[in-house]
Amino acid sequence: MRTAAVLAVSALIAASLVACGPGSPGGTVTLWMYPVIADQAQSRAYWHRVEAGFEHDTGVDLRIELQPWEGRQEKLGAALMAGNGPDVVLLQSDMIPQYAGENALAPVDDVVAGSPRPYPPAVVGALQVQGRSYGVPLYRTVTTTVYNRKLFAEAGITQLPRTWDEVAAAAPKLAAHGVPVLDYSGSTEETLNLTFYPLLWQAGGSVFTPDGRRSAFASPEGVSALRFLVGLEAAGGLPRDAATKRSGLADDAMVTGRAAMSHAMTAAAARTVVAAIGPENTVIGLPLQNRARVTFGTPGALSLLRSAKHPEVARKLLTYLTSPAVAGELCTRSGFFGPWADAPPPSADAVDKAFAQALPFTSAGDAHPQARKVMGLLAPHLQAALLGEKTPEQALAEAAAEADALLGRG
C-alpha cells in the first residue's frame, strides 16, 4: 500500500511538472533541509527530484542543502550572524518564536492562506507569533502510549492502564516480576517534549504563564506530575537507570522486552517494538488520561528568512514544497502525518491507523522564544528529583527561580 501510494503521488508530481512547463529564469534560492526521511538514499533521491521539479517549473536555481539534526540551532544561528544563511529552512514550532522574536523570519500568512487544502487551526496556531504565521506546515508528528501486553498478562494484569492511577496501581505488580511499568529516559540530553512535558500537560499544567513572563511548571499541577514519576521510581516502576538513561532503539527497554509501556512513543519507535516483541504483544493506545488526555505532537514547518535574497521566489518555493503532491509524498516516505485537516495516515497499516487516533490529542507545547533554554534549565532539576537528591517541590521551585531570572532578563 505504501509503495503504491508513493508511485501514485510521484506520477502526480511528474504530470504537474509537464503541465506547468518551465517559468522565466531568475535568481537562486537555498533550502536547508534535515533528515525528515530517515533513509539517506531515499532522502537524497526525493530531494533531487524536488529540486529538478522546481527548477523545471520556474527556471530558478534551487539549492537544497541536506543538514544533520545535530547542532542545527548553533549552525543556523552562526549562519544568520555571518549573513550567509539559507532563504528557506525547516523549523519545529517551538523554534519559531525565538527566530521571529529576533526578527529573523518573514511572515508567510499569504502562503498559509493560499493552501488548496485547509490546515487544522491548532497546526496554524502552533506556527504563529502574535497572530502572524511564520511557518508553512509541511508535516505533523504524533506520539502516544505503547504497551507490551505480554508483560502485563504475566503480572496478572488483564486490563491495560489508561490513567495515571491505573499505571501507579500496576507498578508494584510488575515490579514483583522485575519489570518497570513505564520506560523513562531522564538524561538531561533528552527533550522534555517526549518525557516530562506530556505528563505536565496531562496534569493540567503548562511550562509558562499565559503572558509568557514567568514559568508555570512549579504549580501544583507540575508538582503532581513530578510526584507521579518519583512515586513510580519508589515502587520500582521505572528502569533502574531512568534518571540518566538516554533513549535509543538498539537497547530500548521496550524493544528488549524489559519495560511494560511507554507514554510518548513515536510511530517509528513503535514499529521497532512491533518487530522486536511481535504484533500480538504490542498494543498502541490513546495518550494517558489524568486531568487531561494529551500528548506531544508538532508540525514541522518551512520558514522564510528575512535575509532571503529573492523573497518572492522563496515564497513560490514555499508554495511548491507544501503543495499536497510534493508534501504528500514526503509524508509517505518519511512516515509522518500530512499537515492538512483531511490528511489520511501515511500508510494503511495498523501502526499508522492507531497513531492517527492520537492526533486530536496532540499539543506542540508552549510557544515561547525561550522555550528551549528553559527546557535546558529544568532538565537537571527533574533528574535530581528522580535521583532522590531533591523533593519534587524543591526541584521545581529551584528550576522556576532560574527560569524566571532568564525570562526577566529577556
Shape summary: globular
Q: How many structural domains does the protein architecture include?
A: 2
Give, in order, the helices and strands. Answer: HEHEHEHEHHEEEEHHHHEHEEEHHHEHH
**CATH homologous superfamily label of the largest domain:** Periplasmic binding protein-like II
Low-confidence segments, given as residue ranges, are 1-25
In CATH, the architecture of the largest domain is: 3-Layer(aba) Sandwich
What can be said about the biggest beta sheet?
6 strands, mixed
Helix content: 40-55%
Q: Note the beta-strand portion.
A: 5-15%
Tell me the total number of β-strands: 13
Radius of gyration: 22 Å
Predict the CATH topology of the largest domain. Answer: D-Maltodextrin-Binding Protein, domain 2
Pairing-aware structural class of the strands and helices? alpha/beta
The tally of helices reads 16
N-end to C-end Cα span: 50 Å
> What is the top-level CATH class of the largest domain?
Alpha Beta
